[in-house]
Amino acid sequence: GENVEQHPSTLSVQEGDSAVIKCTYSDSASNYFPWYKQELGKRPQLIIDIRSNVGEKKDQRIAVTLNKTAKHFSLHITETQPEDSAVYFCAATLSGAGSYQLTFGKGTKLSVIP
Amino acid sequence: DTGVSQNPRHKITKRGQNVTFRCDPISEHNRLYWYRQTLGQGPEFLTYFQNEAQLEKSRLLSDRFSAERPKGSFSTLEIQRTEQGDSAMYLCASSFPGTGEKLFFGSGTQLSVL
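^ Those are the sequences you sent over. The predicted structure of the assembly is below.
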């Protein structure tokens, strides 16, 4: 089955700096890679996703890049703000196979210091 | 709130007791998932329904766990003879037919087995 590794487990940045979280996956058949944000005590929420036919995707201050050859993908947050503080999870799946069973990484706790 | 609803939010039980959780997905969503999340880990897939049919179960899912979605709307997850290792957050998610891989999570049921 799929295995997703996520690094770092914790990340502290100054407000306004950039943050980068990296994930690697094991199953070369995986073709859909979402990122979820989970604030303390709240539900995970999808913030951005990327499919394997795309190398990069941006949405305002967040972007995701994918390297299929190396089987890794990254989340980039620019101009970080205190409200970006949360746990971020990457995930991978083979979309279109009928299940969409996501395999998640262990999460990165991002702290943005004002 | 028109999102995914889970009840109860918290459940404390004694080892050996049975517990049941309920999930009400977003009304137009035909796919429903159960995940389990322990402290410091990402959500772990348990089982998946498309309408009323349970199409996939994790190999890791003990036979003490059973899930139903009798009319293709709400779902229940029952754990029989609970063990301390069952203590976790149980998350339900649903997805829309056209975008099946984009999961909308509920706030979860936090189970504590004493």
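Residues 44 and 56 of chain B are 13 Å apart (CA to CA). Chain B has a mean pLDDT of 93.

Shout if you want it in another format.
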